Amino acid sequence: MLFLPFLGAVLIGLLPARHAGHSRFVALVCSGLVVLQGWLLLFVFDGNSAAVQCLERHPWATEGGGTFLLGIDGFSFPMVLLASSLAFVALLASHVIQEQRKGYYLFLLLLEMGMLGVFMAQDWTLFYIFWEFTLIPLFFLINRWGGAQRQHAALNFVLYTMGGSVFLLISLLLGFDASQTDSFAMQAMAAGLQQLPAQTQWLIFMGFLLGFGVKMPIFPIHGWLPLAHVQAPSPVSILLSGVLLKMGSYGLLRAAAMLPQAMLILQPFLMVLGMISLLYGALLAWRQSDLKAMVAYSSVSHMGVVLLGIATLNQTGVLGAVTQMVAHGLAAAALFLLVGLLYHRTHTREMRDYGALITLAPRFAVFIALAFVSAVGMPGTVGFIAEWHVLLGGFQQWGGWIALISVGMLISASYSVRTVNQLCLGPVAARMTAVTDLTGLETGTVAFLMFWIVLLGWMASPLLQLSVPTVDHFVQLFAGGGQ
User: Fold this and answer.
1) Residue spans per domain, the chain
2) Angle at Cα 344 formed by Cα 342 and Cα 347, nearest 5°?
3) Which stretch of DSSP H or E encloses residue 67?
4) Per-residue pLDDT for 354 more than 60?
5) Mean pLDDT of the chain, nearest integer
6) What was the pLDDT predicted at 427?
7) 350: β partners
8) Do residues 382 and 453 make contact, with C-beta atoms less than 8 angstroms apart?
9) pLDDT above 90: residue 52
10) Is the peptide bond before 137 cis (omega within 30 degrees of 0)?
11) Helices vs strands, H then E, count in the chain
């Protein structure tokens, strides 16, 4: 499953120039097989166990403590399903890319491999390699196929992320030395680091927080995100917001499980950071007139909800955080897909240039309204399930203070209603006269995302059950002060 995208990238690279048009077909077949394998794992994954499952181990760099160790648990399995599904959606949405398609599809498959590797890795060395590897295809995808400021956006993204990765690497090396183990395997390092004094755990955890916080991103280390989202091609933005941000929150969960006393010390600080990110992102999204910039800043707000859920350190809140990672991935993917398809038709992202979609392109209008409703977390969508769990978990942990989250939700609702009103109603703007409705392929792609948003909103139990045992094991680490 992990190396199918790599195999596809190799096949695309070997295609002669006269057959470069077949690269899309090769990419779709390989990514489709990955999706199929991911869903087949449901038949072998034990949803009642917190243990790492489907383990695959190979000797690799053993003298340096590294092992090629792959596996999935209740944290990683939902992310694997999300990453593989959104990668396939991004490939379907890439029909708008017409220049140098061979290189584009090659890099997109390599990005899929890197994302899956991060979620499957059970060894910190392997995790870090895949973490850094994702930068390479993303840099080229933004730098070559992005907008007018693509070079600045690509460089800004790489510098921010590599800056965070330096702190991540330092903490990994310090943790390896302090754990007094001969392996970078996550479980082996956790067993050693959990016994360290609280002050030592705190120092090591700060590097993880900076490294993963840049990727999430959380305030105030989010500066790369708006420009990267706006300048990246829309199919890449689907993966950037839908999956890449989740790598940061997923890594934070892994670090918290390894350093529980540090997490307890920083719990109030993380709660404040999460609340600031939620409100700050929502306010900036409300002020935007560029559609992609608005969705980008809304991602900061939604990832603030994820951070709040993690910071509760109780079952309800952490389960809400994991569910919010899936919910935001689906909603953000739908929004970036629809905004990208609109831009492809009108070549503008300014809200004032739109209007009367309900008359000119009714399928477009319906899906845009549904996408914003799901992003707000309205009842009947998976976003509601996620935010409700975070709200309950926060109330259990902090009482009435968590009510501040409702302010962010109100701001999100206000800019969502305003945007739907501007795009779908009102007079026909000049740029809208030639707008065509969604094609059959585009309708099917968006409908796939909407299907899961609504289905998981009404039948969330299967998704929640995937993570419950792992979440229970996670929160038990913090009982009794993390001892």
Assistant:
1) 269-476
2) 90
3) strand 67-72
4) yes
5) 89
6) 78
7) 290
8) yes
9) no
10) no
11) 21, 2
